[in-house]
Amino acid sequence: MLDPHAPVLLAWLQALPADAPSLAPATLQALHAAGARALYQAVQGGEARLYAPADADMAALRRLLPQARWLRLQPLWHRAGQAAGRPAPWHYVVATDVLPEHEADFNAWYETEHAPGLAAVPGTVQASRWLCEEAGPGSPRYHACYELAEEQAFGSPAWLAVRATDWSSRVRPHFRNTRRTMFRRVDLVPPAPPA
Fold it and tell me: What is the 3 state secondary structure string of the chain?
């Protein structure tokens, strides 16, 4: 997908354009040509997320998605998951802020216990964390993203065990502006026909 160690651009759309639930094939191809690398549509609701490398053609992307809110995400952490190398049609995102006086504990928890634990869950392809310094009011600064080989990884006994630790219980009440969303990947380029 994207280089997990380089900044990325996130287009956050409250709803896809009028031809939702899917964009026209020509629009998908144009997004790809402009540098977009991954598009995800929320399983419930109209929210969509488009990721592009920071050097993508922003003018072209803005023309194609004029209603999008663009955010620059800085990489914080990345780890290959238990299912590394498998296709990942599911994309689970937790976007949140945290009370400033608990930020150090929050980051330590995410990077030493929570994200590594979820990366190790069967079906997790990769886990990553991103920071949006330019987030405005109500737009979370922290984005934790989990690429999943199957939707059932989310909510599995192994997943729930990672969420149920004492440290998790201590940190989670300090979250603010939290959005948890499951997305399904949308192909930007039609798959090649079988040989």
Answer: CCCCCCCEEEEEECCCCCCCCCCCHHHHHHHHHCCCCEEEEECCCCCEEEEEECCCCHHHHHHHCCCCEEEEEEEEEEEECCCCCCCCCEEEEEEEEECHHHHHHHHHHHHHHHHHHHHCCCCEEEEEEEECCCCCCCCCCEEEEEEECCHHHCCCHHHHHHHCCHHHHHHHHHEEEEEEEEEEEECCCCCCCCC
The low-confidence residues of the chain, meaning pLDDT below 70, are 1-2, 15-22, 137-138, 190-195
How many CB atoms sit inside 10 A of residue 65's CB? 22
**Amino acid of residue 116:** P
pTM of this structure: 0.91
Query: pLDDT tens for residues 10-29?
Result: 888 876 654 454 678 888 99
